[in-house]
Amino acid sequence: MSFTTLLKTAYLGLKANKLRSILTTLGIIIGVGTVISMVSIIDGMNRYVYSVLGDLGTKTVYVQKWEWIIMGGSQAKMRKLWREVERRRDFTLDDVKAIEKLSVVERVAPVQPVLSGKLKYKSRSVECSNIVGTDKEYIYISGFEIDRGRNFTDQDVSRSRRVVILGSYIAKTLFENEDPVGKYITFGNHKFTVIAVLKEKGELLGNNLDDIILIPVTTALKYYYNPRVRAYRVWYSFRILVKFKDNVPMNKGLEALEELIRIRRGRRFDQDNDFALNTSEMLLSAYKKLTSGIFIAMIGIASLALIVGGIGIMNIMLVSVTERTREIGIRMAVGAKRKDILYQFLFESIFLTSLGGLIGVLLGFTIAKVVDLTTPLPASMPLWSVLVGLGFSSLVGLFFGIYPANKASKMDPIEALRYE
User: Fold this and answer.
1) Do 348 and 374 belong together in one domain?
2) Domain count, the chain
3) pLDDT tens across 350-375, in order?
4) 77 within domain boundaries
5) How many Å apart are CA 355 and CA 106, to the nearest integer?
6) pLDDT per residue as tens digits for the range 362-411
7) CA 171/CA 197 separation, integer angstroms
8) Structural domain of residue 113, as residue ranges?
């Protein structure tokens, strides 16, 4: 039998039992739809997270008191870790100057986070959750760009000037259609002159990256840093953002940086570091482990759905073989070979699961699109996920269709013709 004849026969067989065919493929539809929707969401998240974290670059490291990837776990573990980190020595501006002299380093920026606070302009106000004390180098390292205005100068830092660079969200909220540059805002008990506005960066998993303001690091230390507040001894502790030169391997840069800090802190060779060197690669590695776990769980759920769907396919094909016993006998009587009967029912099984796979792809795409439009989670459907979904659904049809097709091909034509 030609491919066209097989396709036509399979289509007519399914058309004769539309409802039964749709119900039979539900397991396939659910399995493939689950795979497509989850892969689309994870792929979209991956692309976005990589693009945002990629702004820091592979040559960038945060020098601070605690490691990003260990700040989690039980309350008892967190309390113990908190007490340990709290006792560690703070970094200072002198550490920044020492790191600047390393031959492997291209740029260094001090970073002093400040507790969130309310910013005011005339009758308007906004709560800012990301207030950073730093210097002119931060813009070049962090991936932010100035939309209008100027960067910090050395004089802004050395004289602890009350000047501020606004994130685009803060600027739009406070000033609406006005140009913020040159105007004054109030933060706490102090007035700041707006010297620049940053370009928009968007969101990352629901977090607004433009909800940020930058002030000179010395201004942050002078007016807002309070060592008696426990948060400033851990979460808001002083840190240093370091960017290595492009021709310096990351491991070599980290070794040189670690050696310098250990010497400055008087750490003996048998003592562990009382500081952490955090990189964007660490975040990406932790993120990959998280999404890998989700992906494995999703594959398990989808596999169960496909197996259930495959069993349903086998069951309905066995019913179909029984119902069409006389048809099989007639086909054999007019010259059909056993392999023709085998191919006919095997192709019907594959056609049925492939149709379910196609519907599953459309369902998965629809779910991913709805999630993309209604939640902060982005979605992006890669071509390989569609091909994998359709390929696996066809393989399910092939595997679970072999037994019914083989049973049909081995029928005795005389007995089949007698079947009522």
Assistant:
1) yes
2) 2
3) 888 888 888 888 888 888 888 778 77
4) no
5) 57
6) 888 888 888 778 776 677 777 777 888 788 888 888 888 888 878 877 77
7) 7
8) 89-274
